[in-house]
């Protein structure tokens, strides 16, 4: 019976003077509920995007000076809290996008139907340059109205879903804190 080798964890390493550099100093909340500093978040996300989504990630924070109390639980809790919050906001944004998609689809289908009915009302088989141009223009206008719902349902949601998966992964990653050196 062979056991699968455990996939090694990818590491994101941060070198800081103090814990406060990791968090947004403008946020008045206590450490575990503070937002991450925007530069720290961008750095972490840029690194985690390079790793396969299914493989584990560990964040190692190197501090110049360790405080008297062990900072690891506070840092890990703060990082988990922040990325869990970002994952929730991402899910809300995805729901909003799909809601906009449904509304756009209803409007687009209604407009397409009206354009196609108007196109047929202009005379189906009768020839004439003006009528042909008007029929084709109405048909094209109707299909152009379908552009946005098709864009939402075919393309726009993928990057949001991927970002949400990254946030979820970061909300569960192991965080270690060490003294530099």
Question: Could you say which overall geometry the principal axes of the C-alpha atoms support?
Answer: rod-shaped
Measured by DSSP, the beta-strand proportion falls in 5-15%
**How many domains make up the coordinates?**
2
The largest sheet, given as strand count, sense and whether it forms a barrel, is: 3 strands, parallel
Quaternary structure state of the chains depicted:
single chain
Q: Sketch the topology as an H/E string, one letter per element.
A: EHEHHHE
Strand order of the largest sheet: 1-2-3
Radius of gyration: 26 Å
Q: How many helices does DSSP assign? A: 4
Helical content (DSSP H or I, runs of 4+) = 55-70%
Query: What's the pLDDT, averaged over the residues?
Result: 89
How many angstroms does the end-to-end distance come to?
42 Å
Structural class: mainly alpha
The beta-strand count equals 3
Uncertain runs: none
